[in-house]
Amino acid sequence: MLDCNxxxxxxxxxxxxxxxxxxxxxxxxxxxxxxxLDDEADELSHLNIPDVVIRRLPIYVRTLxxxxxxxxxxxxxEELARMIDVTAAxxxxxxxxxxxxxxxxxxxxxxxxxxxxxxILKLDRTWGMVLCGMGKLGHAIANYRGFQRSSFxxxxxxxxxxxxxxxxxxxxxxxxxxxxxxxxxEEHIRVGIIATPRVNAQxxxxxxxxxxxxxxxxxxxxxxxxxxxxxVREIDPVSALQSMTYYxxx
Amino acid sequence: MLDCNxxxxxxxxxxxxxxxxxxxxxxxxxxxxxxxLDDEADELSHLNIPDVVIRRLPIYVRTLxxxxxxxxxxxxxEELARMIDVTAAxxxxxxxxxxxxxxxxxxxxxxxxxxxxxxILKLDRTWGMVLCGMGKLGHAIANYRGFQRSSFxxxxxxxxxxxxxxxxxxxxxxxxxxxxxxxxxEEHIRVGIIATPRVNAQxxxxxxxxxxxxxxxxxxxxxxxxxxxxxVREIDPVSALQSMTYYxxx
DNA sequence: TAGATTGTTAATCGATTAACAATC
DNA sequence: TAGATTGTTAATCGATTAACAATC
Lengths: 250, 250
Hints:
Oligomer: homodimer
CATH topology of the largest domain in chain A: Arc Repressor Mutant, subunit A
Strand content of chain A: 15-25%
Number of helices of chain A: 10
Largest sheet of chain A: 7 strands, mixed
Helix content of chain A: 25-40%
Number of strands of chain A: 12
Largest interface: A-B, 62 and 62 residues
């Protein structure tokens, strides 16, 4: 399988977070055959799929799970669309990037579609994560229960303040930053969380990347510079608030 | 100034969060004159401006602040663009929705531009906020230091669990949910934060809206139904992680 | 079979960008 | 003035949607 990763030049984090296309995909290939999961696993296919689509998939999974809880086994794009407040056409279009998962006249099997999207997103395994920066925010993230039912588990806590080192938070000891890179390498960690102060975020990102992390969840209000093969998403409640006040009346 | 708010029908929260336009704006108005702040304050003008643009403004403000810290007084769209990793054209286009703030040949005055955008976003005042749901996550948000230098301040904590009521967190007592609506009304609160369990998020949103809240920061993994005049932004670290693993190699 | 709903196309809509005249 | 950079236009690019043939 040839390596057609054509641009490995440094790509800004904000661009990865914002709707972009890294490559022109051919919009409709007349020779395309009914794909199944072997083809979806193709490492190169993701270059073709808009990031906006990828970012909607977790919402589809979450919604399908809520249907499973209610023991509903079948769902149409129309019904799913109503639950999520998007158009049915968008759901069908989004899914069609990956294959054919429904049955005309019937809709989608909830369990099968949910499993399929989870496999596409590589959620069919558990991802260990390192958490960097163990101030108040870091403590809160280490204790966060939202990860429990997900495919993510924090496996290492790090802080540059030696006086914080050794403290145990949610059953894990805080370790010194200088051990970060080696730990990532040894434990094959691919996901990092940055909860450091603003000024230390970039150097922390650099270390995460050096160790081999390819996905960074960034809680620091800074735009990180990372190589093109690394994805960054921002968690930025202050920016979110600041953009909402614009719409407040009076 | 005529009321051209043509659709006041209920609009889903996800649509407000995603790039949308509620109204077709006329792309270029030949009669448009050099606007200054009086015109920007026009309550109706926001119907014309894409939400993607509004969501970028806080990043501009943050970046301008970092220049002010370095005592840089002037900046070109080119330089700002490099710092944020967008194109200079996009910055100029974004700003042009609101008026003319630069000088040809010179660039922008950092302080003036920063103040101007803050005024556009209504950040030239302090917004009181109610925080609903005082579990672990709620505690973390109540203690969050990121709000300190911002225009936001949590002024009330609420929880439906009567046994939590009375506990003081970061100098504020937790109060019972049944006091929420009246408190919002009496204190003219316009911003609410939801940190309740998933199942209680919608009913909490309903109460916030009933009280008069127009902006909701939602930490619960649920799509909220709110009237069109209410803006919702999601803080959803799990979804962010779930969409990043897609790109991880191997 | 008739009815329902998918998967896919083409049309539409919206956002970004390159280019440049205006102007400091 | 000459050089620099804005504000704005038109062109391009990308994402969404409506519509419908395919098909369960």
